[in-house]
């Protein structure tokens, strides 16, 4: 399944260049009072919702994707986990480019570990990227994102992918500077997710997906998840040895080489095999 959130928090089942409005399936979600759950309820109950989505698609309105407002596929991520310099080619370019490392040493992921981004930075493709520090370099970074589907704590590498609900494209936008990664990457709109959630059963092994990013029609990034230094299953197992991953948590797996600056007025086109593509406009604050 390819499932998107669109317009006023409606749910769509994507079929080619159209979607079917299956929002009525969400009526099956439990009702809550304060305190609210600390997980994304749509993702947590996705298996239960599948037959209801299929049933709703029989009578739902069919709409063209063009012109719709695409929101983040996950409405309420508890946390955004991210893997720094997880492709050798990106590590090499960061070592060579002082503008990327801002005069600091680039420490390998095996040593520095993972970092967290603020969930408040998450938006959908239609929201675009808002440049808040135009006096500094703001870089694009395309990444494969794994959406956690069920709790993971101290899981094995062999079982890690069983905890994934699906995948989507992510843009890990970055303002360069001396601050810690989590601060520079947590600016509002600097975590773009989309265009929809592709359920894990459609992908299988996520380690052979081509990532391509263009800025204003010019290719900037082009690599394959086969070249991840630490694979998706290993990342999830590693993270789960430190904290519990919960349904709706977003796991950004790292960007390949070719990162570079964008400025207001630029248009980013990001594509990952079998996950689709999304267009993201860059604008001034």
Account of the 3D structure:
With 285 residues, this protein is an alpha+beta fold. It has helices at residues 41-44, 46-56, 88-96, 98-101, 109-112, 181-184, 232-240; strands at 2-6, 10-15, 18-21, 62-64, 80-82, 115-117, 122-124, 129-131, 138-140, 142-148, 164-172, 174-175, 191-199, 210-215, 218-224, 250-252, 260-261, 267-272, 276-284. The chain is built from seven helices and 19 strands. Strands 1, 2, 3, 4, 5, 6, 7, 10, 11, 13 and 16 form an eleven-stranded mixed beta sheet that branches. The longest helix is centred in the first third of the chain and has 11 residues, at 46-56. The two termini are 35 Å apart.
Keywords:
single chain; 285 residues; alpha+beta; 11-stranded mixed sheet; 5-stranded mixed sheet
Can I get a quick summary?
This protein is of the alpha+beta class.
Q: Could you name the CATH homologous superfamily of the largest domain?
A: Fumarylacetoacetase-like, C-terminal domain
Rg, alpha carbons: 18 Å
Strand content: 25-35%
CATH architecture of the largest domain: Alpha-Beta Complex
Rounded mean pLDDT is 96
- CATH class categorisation of the largest domain: Alpha Beta
Residues in helix, %: 10-25%
* Element-by-element helix/strand order: EEEHHEEHHHEEEEEEEHEEEHEEEE
Runs in which pLDDT lies below 50 for 5 or more consecutive residues are none
Task: Name the overall outline.
Answer: globular
Structural class: alpha+beta
| Overall domain count | 2
**What's the total number of strands?**
19
For this structure, the CATH topology of the largest domain is Fumarylacetoacetate hydrolase, domain 2
How many H/I helices?
7
Note the gap between the termini.
35 Å
């Amino acid at each position: 399944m390819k499932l998107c959130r669109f317009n006023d928090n409606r749910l769509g089942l994507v079929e080619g260049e159209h979607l079917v409005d299956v929002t009525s399936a969400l009526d099956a979600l439990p009702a809550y009072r304060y305190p609210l759950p600390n997980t994304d309820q749509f993702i947590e109950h996705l298996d239960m919702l599948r037959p209801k989505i299929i049933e709703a698609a029989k009578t739902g309105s069919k709409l063209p994707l063009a012109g719709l407002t695409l929101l983040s596929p996950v409405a309420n991520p508890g946390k955004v986990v991210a893997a720094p310099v997880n492709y050798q080619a990106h590590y090499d370019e960061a070592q060579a480019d002082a503008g990327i490392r801002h005069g600091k040493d680039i420490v390998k992921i095996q040593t520095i570990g993972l970092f967290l981004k603020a969930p408040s930075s998450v938006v959908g493709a239609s929201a675009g990227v808002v440049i808040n520090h135009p006096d500094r370099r703001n870089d694009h970074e395309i990444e494969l994102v794994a959406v956690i589907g069920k709790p993971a704590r101290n899981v094995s590498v062999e079982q890690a992918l069983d905890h994934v609900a699906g995948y989507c494209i992510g843009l890990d936008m970055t303002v360069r500077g001396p601050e810690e990664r989590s601060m520079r990457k947590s600016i509002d709109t600097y975590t773009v997710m989309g265009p929809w959630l592709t359920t894990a059963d459609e992908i299988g092994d996520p380690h052979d997906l081509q990532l391509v990013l263009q800025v204003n029609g010019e290719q900037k990034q082009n690599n394959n998840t086969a070249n991840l230094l630490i694979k998706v299953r290993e990342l999830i197992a590693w993270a789960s040895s430190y904290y519990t991953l919960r349904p709706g948590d977003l796991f950004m797996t790292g960007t390949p080489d070719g990162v570079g600056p964008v400025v207001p007025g630029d248009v980013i086109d990001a594509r990952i095999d079998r996950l689709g593509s999304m267009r993201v406009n860059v604008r001034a604050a």
